[in-house]
Amino acid sequence: MSKEKNLQRLKRIEGQVRGIHRMVEEDRYCAEVLVQIASVQQALRGLSKQVMQGHLEHCVAAAFASRDPAKAAAMQKELLELMYKYV
After folding, report:
1. How far is CA 9 from CA 38, 43, 49, in A?
2. Rg (CA), the chain
3. Model-level pTM?
4. pLDDT, tens digit, for every residue of 20-41?
């Protein structure tokens, strides 16, 4: 996904977070706030998937295509660390 589309998604998420902020300031019903928080979390997960896909298609592919064992090993370590953070 392009940088511009990722930035668009982030702007929408930012707007959602501002909306949640307003809801809390206005003492809105807790269940409504929780629904909006879940929506933001889902939007962030979607963005995360897109960024990961781009990372795999470009950065990871380049590291392994380089045929440099040090680069490949470093990328493998990085991928494992990312996977552990998301699991």
Report:
1. 16, 8, 12
2. 18
3. 0.83
4. 999 999 999 999 999 999 999 9
